[in-house]
Amino acid sequence: MIKYIFSNLDGTLLNQDGQLSEKDIAAVKASPLPISLISARSPQEMQATIDQLALTTPQVAFNGGLIYQPTDLFPMVLAEYPLATSAVATLIAALQSEFSDISLSAYDLHHWYTQTIDAGIEAIAKQTGQLPTLINFSDQLQNPFLKLFKIQLIMQTTQQRATVADFINQCHLPGLSVQQSGTMTLEITSHEATKANALTTILENTGLTVADCAAFGEGQNDLAMLSLVLQTIVMGNASDQIQMAGQFITKTNHHSGFSYGLKKYITKVNQKVG
């Protein structure tokens, strides 16, 4: 029986406009099962969705870099896997030198940092409703108390994305994980920050196992999570490669695929067991 649900956010619960559908809101609120979001977003970028869905469970940000309990004030950290500052400083300096035209930003627990407001930053700000803090990265990275969880790179072409990914890998910096998000974006987190690890941590704290949960996803960074659990629901807007990881292919995120999967798959599975 399915006792817990994990879901990706962008491309899964959120439609192309970054919004929740009324059907999905109603389905989440009506579900007797606890639901945790596992997202690449920061806690601040997730908060509006958490509020709309009235979620009280632990949530996951930065692709697994942060597991936290939402509160009225600040995220209460349950587990965290920040980036190594020395590796980040080396990487950012190298990227700024080699690729001056890419959009580069970084996140700590409370802030979204960038050095330049460009089209990529403006697009993310519009999508998430957050405003970046302007800094000089070389200066900010001298701060011994700085704890970054994610570097976000937005490229202009898919070819440039592949070139930048190869460049990062050739830097051979320790402790980094590079994941594709969408077609033009790379996200760099700690190698310990994975959606699968975050899911496992939450389950351990609830006394459940991967056999007791289901996961919704649609992106490359969802594959580890989808390969871990036994009940997998993949969105209709996912690529063919990602859909191969799904036991059930639901409708697209623009047609309330989450609520459809919840009703047509999860409820049906639990009724059979019950």
Structural notes for this entry:
This protein has helices at residues 22-30, 43-53, 85-98, 119-128, 137-140, 158-171, 195-206, 223-228, 240-243, 257-273; strands spanning 4-7, 35-37, 59-61, 66-69, 76-80, 103-107, 112-114, 133-134, 150-154, 176-181, 185-190, 213-217, 231-234, 248-249. The protein has 274 residues and is of the alpha/beta class. It folds into 2 domains: 4-80 and 195-273, HAD superfamily/HAD-like (Rossmann fold, 3-Layer(aba) Sandwich), CATH 3.40.50.1000; 85-190, Hypothetical Protein, Haloacid Dehalogenase-like Hydrolase, Chain: A, domain 2, CATH 3.30.1240.10. Strand 4 (66-69) and strand 5 form a beta hairpin. Helix 1 packs parallel to helix 10 (257-273). The protein is globular.
Structural class estimated from helices and strands: alpha/beta
- The tally of strands reads 14
Rg for CA atoms: 18 Å
CATH superfamily membership of the largest domain:
HAD superfamily/HAD-like
> End-to-end span in angstroms?
8 Å
Mean pLDDT: 95
Query: Would you list the SSEs in sequence order as H and E?
Result: EHEHEEEHEEHEHEHEEHEHEHEH
When the domains are counted, the total is 2
CATH-scheme architecture of the largest domain: 3-Layer(aba) Sandwich
CATH fold field value of the largest domain: Rossmann fold
CATH class bucket of the largest domain: Alpha Beta
